[in-house]
Fold each of these.
Amino acid sequence: MKIISVVGARPNFMKIAPFIKVVSANNESQEEQIEHILVHTGQHYDDRMSKTFFRALNIPNADINLGIGSGSHAEQVGNTMIAFERVLLNEKPDWVIVLGDVNATLACSITAKKLHIRVCHIEAGLRSFDERMPEEINRLVTDRLSDLLLTPDELSIENLKNEGVAKSKIVFVGNIMIDTLESNRVKASNLIINEIIEENFIQEQKSNDLNNFNSPTSHFALMTMHRPSNVDKKEILEPIIRFLLDEVSLDMPIIWPIHPRTQNQLQQFGLWDKAILNEKLILLNPLGYHEMLKLNMEAKIMLTDSGGLQEECTVLGTPCLTLRWNTERPITLRKNGGASVLVGNNISRIREEYKNTLKLNRSPDRPKLWDGKTAERVLKAILNTNN
Ligand code: UD1
């Protein structure tokens, strides 16, 4: 059997790592070999957004890189389809595996399907019900076309059934990203926060002498934000920055590994200089997997609009404010046993929940099948469907 797996952007890399490991294990122990080809669309191209993860998670170099880079959504999707079609015509795989909800997921599932190649979607069935989110469009189209839909939780199964997806195509496998978290926990916990900061400090920023994270009682907030709905409009981004600088930073330092999109927008809107001058706001370059995991393990509170971090906060128990009005991952919400609460981007709501959340302690949760063994179930589901 020949499988092509596709990755394109940062959140895909931690999801493919455990699958590649189980394919190798299969090939060592079973007679019937799986030929696996890894395709990187090149949507994320910076070392810090891509290569770092391949190295840290022992992902073999991509066999094929489509070199797509940045551009509008139509450019990214269109260029990926044109380049990926050539790969499929050459390689003729039995399966194409796509992950998550990035533009590569959409582009490659459509391309494969048009060539009558079977598509397996890992992380199927998540729905924010917000079609203004580019990722929601990617999820809807990919799930509509996929032959095998592997879901991370049971709520996702319900979403798919409600959309009329045949039960026979759906398999509940759990959350593959948690496989990666579990196999890297120990390595991450041995890192030292002050070193992470020193090594990733954004150059032009002042020195970080005022903050010391070596003491176990030193609190800090951890921040990430990159969604277009939060960072592409000055009238939304500016009040959030003001809240961080004028309020949160009075309680504790804020560590913020900053996404390239957000850094660009802060610079464009004239907010960058103000942000870097505040000594309690520690702006870092995008971090590696273990570094981010370590910070998440120790943070007093997380503020984020990332989907993956909501999930990691659930398992680690980090109290989390999700800077969105909706989530495709309701299992991560406090009301469903998780660690996060939706606060959108309205400052009075963020402030109120921030104050409530500061009173909370860590409370880890483990949703069903988030057990570190999802990749094995993924491969089993594919082998079962192949027969
Ligand atoms: C993408 C995904 C999103 C995911 C996020 C995680 C889609 C539709 N969105 O959003 O689901 O949560 O990745 O990071 O696929 N850039 C760089 N260096 C890079 C990559 C991007 O500078 O390595 C810049 C681009 O030039 C662009 C901006 O960052 O200006 C946004 O990149 P883009 O690939 O459009 O999407 P993300 O916002 O990263």
Amino acid sequence: MKTRLFTALILAAIIAPASLFAQTPVEKEFKVKQRYLNIPVYDDRPSARLLFTTKGVDTLDVDVWIAQGEPMYWVYKDLTPYMGKKLKLTYFGDPADMDKLFVADTIMGQSTFYKEAKRPQFHFTTIRGWNNDPNGMVYYNGEYHLYYQHNPYKRYWGNMHWGHAVSRDLVHWEEFDDVLFPDNLGTMFSGSAVVDKNNTSGWGKKGVAPIVYAYTAHAQWQTQCMAYSLDGGRTLVKYENNPVVNSHEAAGSHETRDPRLLWYGGEDGHWVMVLFEKDGNSIYTSNDLKNWTYKSHVPGFDECPDLFCLPVDGNPANKKWVTLGAAGIYMIGDFDGERFTPEAGRYQYMTGVPYAAQTFSDTPDGRCIQIAWGRVSHAGMPFNSQMQLPTELTLRTTRHGVRLASNPVKEVESLLHRQFTAPGVMNADDVNKVLAKFTDPDQGLHIKATVKLDASCWVAFKMNGKEFFEYSPSFGLFNGAFYSTEDITGLSFPIEFYIDRTGVEVFVDNGLYSWSGQLNCASDSRLFSFEGWAATLYEVVIDTVESIW
Ligand code: FRU
């Protein structure tokens, strides 16, 4: 009995520190004179809470994974909002960890930003930490804003903030500080943005139309909140009467999230919020972006809804509405401002790593431009995941009826440098001889061709001898998913590859079907090749893709 008690006491002593520290936080107070708090990270350490408290700024409460010994990598917190003020840090972990944090005018590792060995070269990635869904995508005053689900303190999901990057041309991005931080309503889940041109919200000021944001606060219940920006999207002000939609009881589910805003109709139109609730996309309407009324629901979707109107084959007299969910499943139909009536679907236009795509609001030329989260990882890097290339969505009449197509925006062409063209036919051996000249694993590649097969044939595209994309006409399967090509025989189709350091995007039939995936390339060489019995390629084009950094 005694021995048992003794063992229990020893065990308690070993286990105690974590819970003990949890109750006795350590505090450090200082006047902020330098911009960054540098934090060393060890991924496998249990997290501990770190609080940032100062007068006039909401307390920030986040989880951190502070390394005790050699850190795996460093992350940072931009202290600009606290500059010149007294900041109190309260830490609920091992008090010794506090000494590992330091404030400086530079970020640890700053000189290596964008030069890291596995940083994708033409896909947006965050400087530090984790990203998932694109959020708040909006065009405003010459800038495309890409906000995103961001964990600034670790390269895995958690602590959801909204990160922020800006581009003038859709290909080069500049990262700014995070704009939405967890608060007492929860962590900052996905949402969207619109320009409130007529200041229906009243949040604008003379000569400045506000950008208005809707986002989900995630806690025990998921509620919908609003924020606005008057400085071109750099800083966001949360609405004091948040949340504006609290629907878990009515929806019969705690899953109510990812509000998508859009304007419906002309001058006397109204605002629409498409919200994922329980099993599909709900529609709410509003005149002022603050008061929202539930109108209808279309079941059959999961997370991150979108809703947009597109001309069929570019004909403005024949427009259709499309609604979709995070996995790229969509329906085509009609929308009267309050209710979406499905006419056709469910279809899928993209598979593989893309998820939770969103389209830009207020594009200057009316193009429907989408960016998807790319679930691609980059071994050993202090950041994780990426954004897929921006693609233009169009509706095209196919031999199956009207379908959604997704193709890289024309701006991507500005990164391409032509290396090889062959107008005629080439067999696999000849193509592979040419491809063998492009083995630099750091060099982005764009390859375009038309595949032509024999009925009993198959074709496989390989990276360093390992197949990553294959098709067999007898089964009609592209990497396991059935897709019926525009060529009714299934024996010929155009194909396009965008190959980055860690991922590849593949577009078939001019974007009617696409697949993207992870690439695990050997670090010193990368050989793209193609194999297929009696398979040939027509009109082969090879371009290198310039780095965006
Ligand atoms: C989709 C998603 C969203 C949610 C966000 C949280 O990837 O689950 O539904 O808002 O991620 O990060």
